Amino acid sequence: MSDEAMFEVLEDLEAHAETLHRLERAAEVADRSRSEYQAVLLEGRLMASIGHDVVLGVRGVGPVHGTLRRVGDQWCQVAAGPATWTVRSAALLWAQGLSTRAMPRVAWSRLDAVGIGSPLRRLADARALCTVHLVDDSTLEGVLGRVGGDFVELDEGPAAGVVVATGVIAALRAEG
């Protein structure tokens, strides 16, 4: 075999080895990307989607269409015409229209990391008539009163005097 033929064989082997290395590296990068993506949480996708028109499938309610306005710790708010929906994350079944990006919790401002009590207190302060949708498909209607650590009281309206555990609230709808 001539030197020239030998060099061609070696170049072919080197090219083949380089191709195999690239394929192996691409598979490794794809695998690493998949394993790192498991750390992305739905709330991070929601946070990156503020301002987007979304549809949220909510247990006990069904689809909620509107503009995602706010995201907090285990809740989000959607503006739907004159109504505002406050949705507990635990009742969120699916979401459509979200950004492909995600914002990790460490990038959230301290104001964004507030729990469900914060929007409930705002609704109570506004004395807004709310429809409270529970995870069992039932609803209560009234004006929110005092907000405790894990409950809210309904002050006025058809359900006045009812104390609702926040853990069973799927969503609240307030007009105005």
Structure description:
With 176 residues, the protein is of the alpha+beta class. It has 2 domains: 1-39; 42-175, SH3 type barrels, CATH 2.30.30.600. The protein is 29% helix and 37% strand. It has 3 helices and 10 strands. It has helices spanning 3-37, 42-47, 117-126; strands at residues 53-58, 62-72, 75-80, 83-88, 92-96, 129-134, 139-147, 151-156, 163-165, 169-175. It has a 10-stranded antiparallel sheet with strand order 5-1-2-3-4-10-6-7-8-9. The radius of gyration is 26 Å and the shape is rod-shaped. The model has no long low-confidence stretch (mean pLDDT 88).
Question: Can you summarize this structure?
Answer:
The chain has 176 residues and is an alpha+beta fold.
- Spatial gap, N to C terminus: 87 Å
CATH architecture descriptor of the largest domain? Roll
CATH topology of the largest domain: SH3 type barrels
Would you tell me the structural class of the helices and strands? alpha+beta
The 3D shape can be described as: rod-shaped
- Number of helical elements: 3
Can you tell me the residue ranges where pLDDT is under 50 for at least 5 consecutive residues? none
Number of domains: 2
Q: Give the rounded overall mean pLDDT.
A: 88
**What Rg, in angstroms, do the CA atoms define?**
26 Å
- Beta percentage is 35-45%
Please write out the topology.
Elements: H1 3-37, H2 42-47, E1 53-58, E2 62-72, E3 75-80, E4 83-88, E5 92-96, H3 117-126, E6 129-134, E7 139-147, E8 151-156, E9 163-165, E10 169-175
Antiparallel strand pairs: 1-2, 1-5, 2-3, 3-4, 4-10, 6-7, 6-10, 7-8, 8-9
